[in-house]
Every structure is written in structure tokens, then in C-alpha cells.
Design a protein that fits this description.
single chain; globular
């Protein structure tokens, strides 16, 4: 009887889950592994390792991430909320640890060093951030209605108010800024702003928040040498432009069909398998393959948007919309950096770049979104 019950649950999951979104994510993971081998081979040679070195290092993350994706997609809403709360608590603890025992990589102390791998707390806690922000917006709308942003009661010091959320959100941003990890802080801010705008944030407040963001960026530019150097390099063409220059040359050398074995520019491209993997893809496989990959990323974004727009529950709408905003913004930042449309931010291309924390974080996020969408449509 129990076997039949389990079979029935699995069959129900197969029928109810958004298979198009799931298959699209799995396809990205597969091609991502291929691209990590291609782009990471030269990075491995620099440290006297075989060409498959980064693929082997990625296997545990692929296994953990895919198990997380499938298990999370079978959860009920209460478990999604519980795991999101745990995810935020773990992320905050790790983020606090980076302040106590900072471990710097390329000038940023945003990592927790372990004997196995370096953990990025800001990547780990993205799922909890999106889900709990969506739940908070849902509860605020239930309590205060369409006036939840301007109601005096919503701004009083009580258990459910904007001060409750900001008391957690603002310190997290400050820690990210001080590391410095301005790119991730910017990503979180855009995601939060997009989610609140979708929830009905008045235009007047939107303009105020944009102004605040510009002021915060100006302050970061003035007091943080790391930020100052990157912006000056971007706008004046002076300073350290090696990464960006090599990225553009890789893209130019790849052309439409790629350079294949003749792809030599990426050999001198730092982070070819992580932040600048898209440039390495263009050089190896050509602009046509790179455009197909871009279409696949857009398709995932479209599926998230469709699931959000067809949802019946406001919480699912906010959560799925938030995942779409986070995913789309990170893709845009990574590509804009690669194409020299904005200063380097040290951000991975979701499901494609090498990086365990980012990969597992996105697998958990998409798994929980699949679970919420499935329950919303079929329960």
C-alpha cells in the first residue's frame, strides 16, 4: 500500500509540476557543464591541473543542487516557508561570520572559507530573501490592503510593519557594501524594489528610492577605493581594464561560428569559467550558439513570468515574480559586464558559470518556486 501511495505521489508530481520550466533549467545545467569544461580548461592549465579539473570540482555541487531542486519542488507551502526561514538564518549567520573572520578574494571579504570550498553567504540566502519578502508583502497586503505602503499603521513599531522588514534588510545591505560587495547589494535592492513595485508601490516612493540609490552609489564611489577604481576605469578608460579588454577581444575573436581549438584569447582572460564565461562561450562556440543560450535564459524568464501572471494566490504571484526579477537582473548584470556596458560586478551567469554557492542557491530557489506554482494550480 505504501509503495502504491509513493508511486501515486510521484505520478502526481510529474503531472502537476511545470515541466517546461523544469526541463529548461535542466538543459541550462547540462550545457553549463559543457561550457565550464570548455572555459575552465585554460584556467585549470594555469594552476597545473588537467583540463577537466573544474568539472570534477563541480560534480558535488551539481549533485547537491539537482537533488535540492527536485526535493524542493515536491514541498508543500508550509515547508517552503520553513526552509526559507532556515535559509535566511544560515545566510545571516555566515554573513556575520565574514565580519568576524573575513576571507578576501580579489579584495572582497564576502566569502566563508572552508577546507572543501569557499561559501558565498549572499548567494546562499537568495532563495530565502525572495520567498520571505514575498510572504511579507502578502501578509502586509492582507493586513493593510492596497494602502499598505502609505498606511500609518503599516509604519508603526509592531510585529507586522515595514520596520520589521527593514530591521533585517538594511543591515544585510550595509554588510554587503562594507565587504565590499556592491554588485550583490545592488542586485538585492533591485529585486526588493521590483517586488514592491509589482505589489503596488506608488510612483512617488519609486522616484524617492531611485534618488536614494543614486546618493548611496555616489557615497560608495567617494569612500570606497574599490568602487571608485572600477567606475573611473569604466567611464574614463583609464586604470585596470585588463578583464574587460580581454572579454571584448574574446567575443571579437569568436565571430559567428567560434574559434574552436584556435580560441587563444580566453587563455589570458581571468575568470573565464566564472564571471566572464559568456565571453569564453562566444570565442569557443561563436555568436550563434551564444544567442541560442541567451534565448534559453530568456525562455526561463518567460516561464517564471507566465507562472506569476497565471497564479491564483498573491503570495505565489509575489514569489514567482521576485524569482523572475532576481534571475533576470543577475543575467543582465553578468552580460552587461561581459560586454562592457557596466563596471565589473563579480556576478555569475545563473546555472552556467562555475560556482557552488550560486548554483545551489538558484536550484533551491527554482525548486521552491516549482513547488509553490504546482500547489497553486492543482490544490
Amino acid at each position: 500500500m505504501s509503495i502504491r501511495t509513493e508511486d501515486s505521489k510521484f505520478t502526481s508530481w510529474i503531472l502537476e509540476v511545470d515541466r517546461r520550466l523544469l526541463w529548461a533549467v535542466l538543459a541550462l545545467v547540462l550545457v553549463g557543464a559543457i561550457f565550464v569544461v570548455s572555459a575552465g580548461s585554460v584556467s585549470a592549465e594555469r594552476i597545473n591541473q588537467p583540463w577537466y579539473y573544474f568539472l570534477v570540482k563541480s560534480i558535488p555541487f551539481y549533485v547537491i543542487g539537482l537533488i535540492t531542486l527536485f526535493v524542493a519542488s515536491m514541498l508543500k507551502k508550509k515547508w517552503v516557508l520553513g526552509i526559507s526561514a532556515l535559509n535566511i538564518c544560515v545566510g545571516l549567520a555566515l554573513l556575520a561570520w565574514t565580519c568576524v573572520a573575513p576571507y578576501k578574494i580579489k579584495g572582497s571579504a564576502r566569502f566563508v572559507h572552508t577546507p572543501i570550498t569557499n561559501i558565498s553567504p549572499s548567494d546562499i540566502m537568495k532563495p530565502g530573501f525572495v520567498i520571505l519578502t514575498a510572504w511579507f508583502l502578502y501578509k502586509m497586503h492582507s493586513a493593510y490592503g492596497d494602502n499598505m505602503f502609505l498606511s500609518r499603521d503599516a509604519w508603526r513599531f509592531r510585529k507586522l510593519s515595514w520596520w520589521t522588514y527593514l530591521a533585517i534588510f538594511v543591515p544585510v545591505l550595509l554588510i554587503m557594501f562594507l565587504h565590499p560587495d556592491v554588485g550583490t547589494a545592488f542586485l538585492y535592492t533591485i529585486t526588493f524594489g521590483g517586488m514592491t513595485f509589482v505589489a503596488g508601490l506608488p510612483w512617488l516612493i519609486v522616484i524617492g528610492l531611485v534618488g536614494f540609490g543614486l546618493v548611496a552609489g555616489l557615497v560608495a564611489f567617494m569612500i570606497m577605493p574599490h568602487v571608485h577604481a572600477r567606475f573611473m576605469s569604466f567611464f574614463t578608460g583609464q586604470g585596470d581594464r585588463y578583464q574587460v579588454t580581454q572579454s571584448i577581444q574574446s567575443i571579437q575573436h569568436g565571430g559567428l561560428l567560434g574559434s574552436g581549438d584556435d580560441a587563444f584569447v580566453k587563455e589570458s582572460l581571468p575568470d573565464a569559467h566564472t564571471d566572464f564565461i559568456y565571453a569564453a562561450i562566444v570565442e569557443d562556440f561563436g555568436a550563434i550558439v551564444a544567442c541560442v543560450l541567451l534565448c534559453a535564459l530568456v525562455y526561463v524568464l518567460k516561464r517564471l513570468t507566465t507562472d506569476a501572471m497565471t497564479s491564483r494566490n498573491p503570495f505565489v504571484f509575489y514569489a514567482t515574480g521576485g524569482a523572475a526579477i532576481l534571475f533576470g537582473t543577475q543575467v543582465c548584470i553578468n552580460l552587461a559586464t561581459t560586454l562592457h556596458l557596466m563596471p565589473p560586478k563579480g556576478m555569475t551567469l545563473p546555472f552556467i558559470s562555475y560556482g557552488g554557492s550560486s548554483f545551489i542557491g538558484f536550484c533551491l530557489l527554482f525548486g521552491m518556486i516549482l513547488a509553490l506554482v504546482r500547489e497553486d494550480k492543482w490544490k
